[in-house]
């Protein structure tokens, strides 16, 4: 097959095809950015949700957990933690999370360990609000079931 | 060695190899924590080990690419490097910044590190692979800009070849897309979207250009095949890379809160992503079949073939396994993802660094015809130990992934097993994974040893 293709033809495929691919990708990028606020319910990002995102990042939660399937695979998915652990009840979830964070690390021999992060009650509340917001993002109904 | 400035490549290669040893050791440590959660806890929690593991990988590949570039650009441009001094300074700046950052991960709790480096001023930390403090990220930009400037000046003032043009295109792309690491927003979905502009567009677009150029350079040198022929292949490979790889970014956008059209676009475009890797196999074997010279450095050619084949397996085959949206719905974020990541990074990018090192290091050490036969034999042993080690651990992770999907993902909510229960059932497989990891490390030690194997004296 390659005998029939000359170097000039190959170069044209590269420049033509590459340019086309870039244009398509840039176009889709603009459209996606336009749609993100609606899909993610950006109007629901309160100050507490934004602060919760910081708690998530500043403690490198993604170094063990996944959030919508992205992150490390050492610990459970947390994008749907609100639904799985709080049963969709905000007060119940917040109480659960506060208790859980305070109890770490669990003294179960050779169970994978979560460090004690010494979060303040406000920070735990922010983190809960962030995870509640995350669980409501429209992400094509992933994960397939409640276990994440 | 034709140009004395090619010598600057040597410390880059050596440091890349040292970092690789560290990377594998941290990987093995993590794999033990997967089985015994108390191992080294709380001294080194899993997330710290993982940050070090993946950051070492990224930095070692950058060192490898830089060393490779500094070696090949003078030969391609047919002149000395524009500024060997700048290349030496860049090396030390990068070493100091890299070592300080790793020490920061190891000895300062991450939350403290964010305060210490004033992350609030420009919050970029706490994202997978991009955990570096903002100040380190700025340092990386400085290092990369000075490196690209040095290479560009050398190319402009000398001969331009297809290889150098494509390498430079890849490097400019690498620098450009890294800028998205500085994006920040209160909206996690926006962050997730642009995070892939760094991660995917590095490893599945711009780095593939670099990979293609480096592989082509070694094949030109070792086979003596006409450049016209090699250039044509190179253009076809990178054309397919861009056409499939750019829109192929969509295979990461399926389930993270982005528009539904990515399910189609991402699936279709990324289904073509194995093509450039397959072309690389055809390319390597075709060039070797038509070779005009018989180079004594046979092991470098083995690495070149290995890069094409294992790169195709890891990136092409293991990538395709879960690239279609309906499949990824069940496989997304499981051990299968980890399996793919391990074999593709090793096959495509770590192995191309080995190829360049095995080709260039003997020349830099005054052995223009490659290492002696005995040293090459030792190196061949290390090649197989590492390749089999990596394929073995990938297979183990694949089995773990499939079992995880069966127990945790496919059943409905009433019957699915919880994450931690599933993981407990996989411990035997994780032990096998660890053993293959140890095998890979032994392979690397044998590789190091091959540097010290001396020519045998002929006894009369």
Can you lay out the helices and strands and say which pair or pack?
The complex is a heterodimer of chains A (148) and B (460).
Chain A: H1 7-39, H2 47-58, E1 66-67, E2 70-71, H3 81-86, H4 90-103, H5 121-135
Helix pairs in contact in A: 2-5, 4-5
Chain B: H1 9-35, H2 46-77, H3 84-107, H4 110-116, H5 134-157, H6 162-178, H7 188-223, H8 227-248, H9 261-271, H10 274-289, H11 298-320, H12 325-331, H13 335-364, H14 373-409, H15 419-425, H16 427-450
Overview features:
heterodimer, A: 148 residues, mainly alpha, Cytochrome Bc1 Complex, Chain D, domain 2, 2 domains, two-stranded antiparallel sheet, 5 helices, 2 strands, 54% helix, elongated, B: 460 residues, 16 helices
Give a concise summary.
The complex is a heterodimer of chains A (148) and B (460). Chain A has helices at 7-39, 47-58, 81-86, 90-103, 121-135; strands at 66-67, 70-71. Chain A is an all-alpha fold.
Can you characterise this structure?
The complex is a heterodimer of chains A (148) and B (460). Chain A is mainly α and 148 residues long. Chain A folds into 2 domains: 1-39; 41-148, Cytochrome Bc1 Complex, Chain D, domain 2, CATH 1.10.760.10. Helix content of chain A is 54%, strand content 3%. Chain A is built from 5 helices and 2 strands. Chain A has helices at 7-39, 47-58, 81-86, 90-103, 121-135, and strands spanning 66-67, 70-71. In chain A, strands 1-2 form a two-stranded antiparallel sheet. In chain A, β1 and β2 (70-71) form a beta hairpin. In chain A, α2 crosses α5 (121-135) and α4 (90-103) packs across α5 (121-135). Chain A is elongated, with a radius of gyration of 22 Å. Chain A starts with 6 loop residues before the first helix and ends in a 13-residue tail after the last helix. The model of chain A has no long low-confidence stretch (mean pLDDT 96). With 460 residues, chain B is mainly alpha-helical. In chain B, α7 (188-223) runs antiparallel to α11 (298-320) and α8 packs antiparallel against α10 (274-289). The longest helix of chain B is centred in the C-terminal third of the chain and has 37 residues, at 373-409. The two termini of chain B are 33 Å apart. The relative contact order of chain B is 0.09. The mean pLDDT of chain B is 96.
């Amino acid at each position: 097959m390659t005998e029939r293709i000359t170097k000039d033809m190959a170069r044209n495929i590269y420049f033509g095809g590459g340019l086309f691919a870039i244009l398509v990708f840039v176009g889709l990028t603009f459209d996606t950015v336009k749609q993100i606020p609606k899909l993610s319910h950006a109007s629901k990002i309160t100050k507490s949700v934004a602060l919760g995102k910081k708690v998530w990042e500043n403690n490198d939660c993604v170094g063990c957990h996944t959030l919508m399937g992205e992150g490390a695979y050492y610990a459970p998915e947390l994008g749907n933690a609100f639904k799985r652990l709080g049963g969709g009840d905000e007060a119940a979830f917040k109480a659960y999370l506060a208790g859980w964070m305070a109890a770490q690390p669990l003294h179960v021999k050779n169970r994978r360990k979560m460090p004690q992060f010494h979060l303040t009650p406000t920070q735990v509340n922010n983190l809960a609000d962030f995870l509640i917001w995350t669980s409501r993002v429209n992400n094509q109904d992933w994960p397939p079931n409640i276990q994440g | 060695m034709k140009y004395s400035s090619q010598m600057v490549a040597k410390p880059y290669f050596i440091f890349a190899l040292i970092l690789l040893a560290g990377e594998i050791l941290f990987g093995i440590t993590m794999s033990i924590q997967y089985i015994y959660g108390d191992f080294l806890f709380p001294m080194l929690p899993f997330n710290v080990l993982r940050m070090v593991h993946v950051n070492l990988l990224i930095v070692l590949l950058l060192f490898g690419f830089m060393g490779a570039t500094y070696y090949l650009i003078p030969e391609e441009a047919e002149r000395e490097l524009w500024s060997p001094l700048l290349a030496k300074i860049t090396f030390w700046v990068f070493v100091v910044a890299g070592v300080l950052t790793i020490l920061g991960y190891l000895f300062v709790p991450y939350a403290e590190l964010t305060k210490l480096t004033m992350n609030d001023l420009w919050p970029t930390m706490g994202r997978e692979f991009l955990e570096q403090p903002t100040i380190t990220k700025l340092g990386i930009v400085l290092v990369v800009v000075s490196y690209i400037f040095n290479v560009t000046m050398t190319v402009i003032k000398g001969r331009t070849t297809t290889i150098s043009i494509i390498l430079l295109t890849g490097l400019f792309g690498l620098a450009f897309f890294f800028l998205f690491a500085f994006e920040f927003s209160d909206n996690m979905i926006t962050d997730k979207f642009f995070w892939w502009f760094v991660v995917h567009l590095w490893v599945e677009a711009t780095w593939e250009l670099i990979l293609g150029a480096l592989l082509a350079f070694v094949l030109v040198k070792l086979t003596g095949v006409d450049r016209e022929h090699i250039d044509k292949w190179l253009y076809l490979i990178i054309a397919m890379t861009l056409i499939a790889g750019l829109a192929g970014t969509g295979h990461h956008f399926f389930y993270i809160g982005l528009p539904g059209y990515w399910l189609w676009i991402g699936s279709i475009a990324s289904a073509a992503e194995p093509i450039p890797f397959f072309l690389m196999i055809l390319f390597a074997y075709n060039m070797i079949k038509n070779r005009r010279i018989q180079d004594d450095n046979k092991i470098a050619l083995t690495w070149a073939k290995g890069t094409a084949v294992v790169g195709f397996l890891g990136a092409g085959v293991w990538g395709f396994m879960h690239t279609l949206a309906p499949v990824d719905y069940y496989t997304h974020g499981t051990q299968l993802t980890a399996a793919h990541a391990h074999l593709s990074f090793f096959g495509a990018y770590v192995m191309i660094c080995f190829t360049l090192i095995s080709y260039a290091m003997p020349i830099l050490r005054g052995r223009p015809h490659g290492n002696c036969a005995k040293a090459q034999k030792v190196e061949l042993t290390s090649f197989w130990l590492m390749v089999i080690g990596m394929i073995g651990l990938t297979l183990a992770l694949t089995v773990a992934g499939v079992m995880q999907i069966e127990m945790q993902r496919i059943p409905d909510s009433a019957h699915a097993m919880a994450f931690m229960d599933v993981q407990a059932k996989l411990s035997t497989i994780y032990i096998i994974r660890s053993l293959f990891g140890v095998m890979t490390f032994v392979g690397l030690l044998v590789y190091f040893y091959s540097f010290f194997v001396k020519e045998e004296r002929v006894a009369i």
